[in-house]
Amino acid sequence: MEKYAILKDDTEVLFRPSISHDFEMVWELFSTLSEESLRFLPHPFIREEIKHMMTNINHEELLPIVAVVEESDSRRRIVAVATLGFQQGVARRHRAEFDIVVHDDYQGRGLGAMLTQHMIDLARERGLRKLYLKTSTQNLRAIQVYDNMGFRIEGRLVMEHYHHSRQEFGDDFRMALFL
Ligand SMILES: CC(C)(COP(=O)(O)OP(=O)(O)OC[C@H]1O[C@@H](n2cnc3c(N)ncnc32)[C@H](O)[C@@H]1OP(=O)(O)O)[C@@H](O)C(=O)NCCC(=O)NCCS
Fold first, then answer.
1. 62-78 pLDDT, tens digit each
2. Which of 7, 62, 85, 168 sits in a 20 to 30 Å window from 127, CA-based?
3. What digits encode the pLDDT tens for the residues 111-129?
4. What is the CA radius of gyration of the chain?
5. What pLDDT score was predicted for residue 164?
6. Which residue's CA lies nearest to atom 18 of ligand 1?
7. Sequence-separated (6 or more) residues with CB below 8 Å from residue 155
8. Burial level of 50, CB count in 10 A (0-12/13-18/19+)?
9. Counting atoms of ligand 1 from 1, which one is nearest the CA of 133?
10. Residue 75 half-sphere exposure, CB side, CA atoms within 13 Å?
């Protein structure tokens, strides 16, 4: 489940499963996202909730993968997180829900695409048949990444989420990739 990737600007990134000790680095990621990134995420993020989630991961239900870089001052930093959410039962265990966030400092360097590909590879290795996700219809960058990876729009979910900063509801696309 571990893999090294090289970004467009030659930065080396390690993809690996997250562990509970990653909490401070993951919190730093979520707590320093820009308004533009937060616009497309179900925040506000609460420190204690994320801590609880990270220390109580049920691996039957969730596979969280982090992207770790070593920055110039030798400081390790988590710059992206992606998850596969599994469901139980014979009618649902063929599919998983995909989610991803890349920190603003590392967006636009190919990391979103590479981490998405890694998650697709992991899903295939587990024998899954379908990956699906929800994204705001306004999240053109995310839609581009998913489309490049082969995800297709399955439908539009009207008033599916709430934009906290704008205090308004927005539509989502549901997208899916068949494996
Ligand atoms: C969406 C996200 C995961 C993408 O990751 P990333 O590392 O920035 O993406 P990449 O650098 O791999 O690729 C970006 C692609 O979007 C394209 N793009 C950038 N801005 C765009 C825009 N406004 N409209 C359309 N495409 C755009 C780029 O050209 C590139 O496509 P290409 O490889 O075909 O040239 C990341 O920006 C992010 O986490 N955003 C905030 C949170 C979020 O939206 N998460 C997803 C929730 S569904």
1. 999 999 999 988 899 99
2. 7
3. 999 999 999 999 999 999 9
4. 16
5. 78
6. 141
7. 173, 174
8. middle
9. 48
10. 7
- Token digits of residue 109: 């360097």
* Distance, CA of 141 to CA of 160 (rounded, Å): 19
User: Phi/psi of residue 75, each to 5°?
Assistant: -85, 125
| Separation of alpha carbons 157 and 173, rounded Å | 6
Would you say 95 and 130 are in contact if contact means Cβ atoms under 8 Å apart?
yes
Residues in contact with 118: Cβ distance below 8 Å, sequence separation at least 6, in sequence order = 3, 5, 15, 65, 82
pLDDT of the residue at 74: 86
* Residues contacting ligand 1 via CB (< 6 Å): 37, 40-41, 100-102, 107-113, 135, 139-142, 144-145, 148
pTM across the whole model: 0.96
Q: Could you give all domains of the chain from N- to C-terminal order, each with its CATH number?
A: 3-129 (3.40.630.30)
- The protein residue with its alpha carbon nearest to ligand 1, atom 16, reads 141
Element (H, E) at 17: strand 12-17
Q: Which two tokens mark 166?
A: 């704008």
Q: Give residue 15 CA to ligand 1 midpoint distance, Å.
A: 18
